[in-house]
Amino acid sequence: MLGKSARPNLNLSQVSEMMEKLFKLTPTKLHTLPSYDDQNFYVATSEGKEYVLKILNSEDSQNPTMFEVQTYAMSFLHQKGLPAQTALPNISGELMSLEEIDCGQGCQKFLVRLLTYLPGTTVSKDHLTAKLLYDAGKMAATMDMMLKEMEHPDLPVLERKGFRWSLSCVPMMESYLHILDGDPLQDIVRSVIQQYKTLVAPKYSEFSKGVIHGDFNNLNMLVRSDEGGEFKVIGILDFGDMHSDVHVHELAITIMYLMTEHPDPIEVGGPVLAGWESLFPLNESERECLFTLVLCRFCQSLLYARYFVILNPENEEYLMISSKRGLGILKQLMELGKEKVEKVWFESAAEFRDGEE
Q1: 269-277 and 130-147 are packed helices; what angle lies between their axes, rounded to 10 degrees?
Q2: Would you give the DSSP letter of residue 309?
Q3: Which of 45, 185, 280, 327 has its CA 20 to 30 A from that of 300?
Q4: DSSP per residue, 2-16
Q5: Is 181 assigned a catalytic role?
């Protein structure tokens, strides 16, 4: 787990100096953007352009090859027509650089990238029509299908064994259950881990595999309304959790986070599934495991958020965003049970597909 001192903590003056030094750009407006492990800034410049400056935590900064591949993937998707952010070169022509910075705890080395700024708003309950949910599922599938075509000599670095946010690493949560001592959530998480081991783990050989975004959530989707007032996904942010995994994980993650914004969370799965399957149909084993994988992502989000709040209490507001409604939705899913929820999801997806034809 990321140590407290690894997270960058630059002030606005340091950011302004960095923009001048690395990019010869003069900021006129600067403010922080939400981030889990890193530090992000919105930057408007005197040249009339807008950017996002991303400073990676010092632990991840020790693996620049990983972020070279992620940066390449963003450009690859953008060139194929997907609305992904891309990195911009610094004055040395590099898309990222390792900078020595003192954030108040001595000098540390942080990887720095300047990314394009994409207009739009992040997803909220006001946007979540069935059409947008379908669009989100289709965008996730489109992205993963394009990534299947990507080639890069360092692609194996995305295997990321033991990556805590991979749904392939659900059993890792057992090491953190002590955080929930005395909390009823502990029994729920323990039960979900057991379901994963029994139902999901034995089926991995039957799942479609490839590179996934890994965090296609409501805060990483930008939307905008068209002339008819219909919201569509027009931007994809934050490829920091990209890794090689199974594709059904991407779908489960997308469903889970969109549930946290919807007034009737159970209704989310059907349209998202329909959008996904319009391009990337699930096989029988993937459909059988989808519900459990959504439960697993809720548990990861709730458990790791609480752990990170212990390490970084000053970042509690952002860390607990998904947890605010997540616990209630997780309990609702557990009470309804797999059969009832799947019935809603699969029947809704079928109806949505019929309506699209």
Answers
A1: 40
A2: H
A3: 280
A4: --GGGS----HHHHH
A5: no
What are the residue ranges of helices labelled H in the chain? 12-23, 64-79, 130-147, 185-195, 247-259, 269-277, 284-311, 316-319, 323-336, 338-356
> What are 241-298's pLDDT values in tens digits?
999 999 999 999 999 999 999 999 999 999 999 999 999 999 999 999 999 999 999 9
Cα–Cα distance for residue pair 133/203, rounded to 1 Å: 27
Both structure tokens of 143? 């992205």
**Which two tokens mark 287?**
């459909």
Torsion sign (Cα): 258, 262, 265, 268 = negative
Number of Cβ atoms within 10 Å of the Cβ of 116:
16
- Rounded to an integer, what distance in angstroms lies between the CA atom of residue 272 and that of residue 130? 8
Q: pLDDT digit string (tens) for 197-249? A: 999 999 999 999 999 999 999 889 999 888 888 888 999 999 999 999 999 99
Q: What is the pLDDT of residues 48-71, one digit of tens each?
A: 999 999 999 998 899 999 999 999
C-alpha 321/C-alpha 241 separation (Å) is 18
